[in-house]
Amino acid sequence: MTKPSIPVGIICSQHGPYQAMGREILKSAMMAVDEINEQDEFDFAISAHVRDPRGIISEYHTVCDDLIRNVGVEHIIGCYTSASRKQVLPIVERTDRLLWYPARYEGFECSDNVIYVGASPNHNVLPLVRYVLDNLSREIFCVGSNYVWTWETNRVTRELVTAARGRILAERLLELGESAVTHIVDEIVRRRPPVVFNTLVGSSSYDFIRAFHAATTAAGLDIPMLSCSLCEPELKIAGPASAGCITSSAYFESIRLPENQAFVARWKARHGEHSSPSVDGQSAYVAVYLLARALQRAGTSDIGEVRRAAAGHRYNSPQGPVWIDGSNNHCVLTPRLAVSNADGQFDIFWEAEAPVKPDPYLAQLDIAAGPARDGTLPNAPHLRVVK
């Protein structure tokens, strides 16, 4: 018998400045959809309706409206940048739909109509900054894309660094897709900062990484680069210049868990032996499974019932145990730190002892208390809460 079909929207840019990551999200989401549709565990099939906003921010509103009005979807997976998520947010709230957002993001948001599957700032920014303060420097040079993720990530970084009596040496911003990076690289070579924090997105980041590597090598400089977003497919795009970047993430291909080894094997069988899953793509895969399991448990696609069914349900995903905190709709994840190598992979050198609850507003942060056993920064009243 044919299973009943549930329409699900998938929004990710296949063109534009961050098309590479949009394609990775789509590949991972569709892999999960196909797996679920083949499993007897689920008494329904997911019908994926894919939309490509082409990296144009206003188009996210348009395609989301189309999916809701003309297709009748109640659940949407996707959006790579916070700028795109904020285009979709008013529509899903007004029409009472549910957006399953896969990407790591800057925090300081909580909506009943969004499930935040990617890392919160206490999962990636805090472990990275703590590592830098303890092991590298109390001075950081920041370069990033001119939108909300960089603004808020830099703000949190600035608060943490200044509380440790350090300082941010500069904050240089480029428009999304901007390739003119020479002036920033020249400044870095001239000023010789001890570390550079890269929050550029898409093609801007790849151009910067290559130019940064060439210029610092020519000048005989060894300046570590930091990231909360760089992933394996991007290492391949940027080439050998990407080696040595210290990255904070909940997922790396090199995680030695049986669930991840099986996932990577399935991925390579589907997409080629030399391909690699990305962190946000893997989160899209997790999002589809969290949604499917919640749909099965709820016995309906009604978002209120699905949200209740999803909360607290543990899923042993490729990145490790993941579940949704019902108090804020963010996922419990395991933070990790790794350094990129010349083979286009990451060598993990630290991970939390156990999955860490999401703290999107950093309400539990106490800088004065120092690092917790798991390495995170555990109520700092001077950190401003900004919506």
From TrEMBL:
- By its UniProt entry, which SUPFAM superfamilies does this protein fall under? Periplasmic binding protein-like I (SSF53822)
**CDD domains the UniProt entry points to:** PBP1_AmiC
Q: What is the name attached to this protein's record?
A: Transporter substrate-binding domain-containing protein
Q: Which organism is it from?
A: Bradyrhizobium quebecense
